[in-house]
Amino acid sequence: MSDHPIFPDLAGASVFITGGGSGIGADLTEGFLQQGSRVAFVQRSDASAFCNEMERRTGNRPLFLPCDITDTAGLKSAIEAAAQAHGPVRVLINNAANDQRHETLEIDEAFWDASMAINLKSYFFAAQAVIPGMQAAGGGSIVNMSSISYMMADCGYAPYITANAGITGLTRTLAREFGPDNIRANAVMPGMVVTDRQLEKWLTPENMEAQIDRQCLKRTLSPDDMVGGVLFLASSASAAMTAQALVLDGGVVTTG
């Protein structure tokens, strides 16, 4: 993992990350641990070995809370447990997602509902659960991991693309509603980030080459490339920034 700038206000901060033990989430967990943050994360599979490795590498052990984020009651219970262990959540990173590929004409209602539950509903209810604590603490930062997929008119995973468009809308309405409480909400929009899951499931050398051709930066993007932007949005370095979408895609789409 690269060395990232240190943001002093993140030292000791209570951070909650969904899907924090694998893929982009694992690098985010490590990034916050290196800041000295008190990190709690959830995922379905056991993360004991990952926690051991993080403690060895950073000297700071994360709190792993087993949870299926589509179980709203379980997600809220995990956030409550994190607050009891580390203090009210000051930084929420909604990261867990499932970008499973599929044919649009083969999607049934159950698949659609399951995809929304993972990729959008959990984001809302995690935010709803942390906001009262942020209000009481005088502020906080919500960072929602989205995607450039809906900005590209992409295809092959319609519910995921739809959910990511919704994440941007959710981010903006949270920013507007809770800005008076000094709660900021921003989205991070990755491009094609090469993870083990992507390589196992569908990412081919041809796909990678085509994506790099679309990028201004002619290299693959790794999960570590997402860490600096998320740390910035979580910290007071971005104190005046809210309701924004930060694109980290190597220069595929342009904003502004």
From TrEMBL:
Oxidoreductase keyword on record:
yes
Q: What Enzyme Commission number(s) appear in the record?
A: 1.1.1.-
Q: Does the keyword Cytoplasm apply?
A: no
CDD domains for the chain: SDR_c (cd05233)
Q: What family does the database annotate?
A: Belongs to the short-chain dehydrogenases/reductases (SDR) family.
PANTHER family assigned to the protein according to its UniProt record, in alphabetical order: 3-OXOACYL-[ACYL-CARRIER-PROTEIN] REDUCTASE, SHORT-CHAIN DEHYDROGENASES/REDUCTASES FAMILY MEMBER
Kindly provide the name given to this protein in its UniProt entry. Answer: SDR family NAD(P)-dependent oxidoreductase
Q: What is the organism of origin for this protein? A: Tropicimonas aquimaris
What taxonomic ancestry is recorded? Bacteria, Pseudomonadati, Pseudomonadota, Alphaproteobacteria, Rhodobacterales
